[in-house]
Amino acid sequence: MVATCCNSAMFLDFTKGHWLTVYRARLPDDVPPLEMRVMTADRPEGAVLPDDAPSYAGHAGRFMWKLLAAWASMGFRAPKVEGIPA
What we know:
Blueprint: E1 11-13, E2 20-22, H1 61-73
Antiparallel strand pairs: 1-2
């Protein structure tokens, strides 16, 4: 999803997925603390990550468990995001 006013990325929606990947910088200042970084193997060459949270090259087991638990609490449904074609 890209904002039409300034052509800035807001979030990524995965077709048939139950999650959105949100750009943290687009959220208000009172967001929960960072818990982990995933898929860091895909970062640009030379990008250095701070040591403020664990970093995983792929999907961490804890991350996958949280996704599954969230999806279960949603009744295994994928919500529709307004403005995105089905």
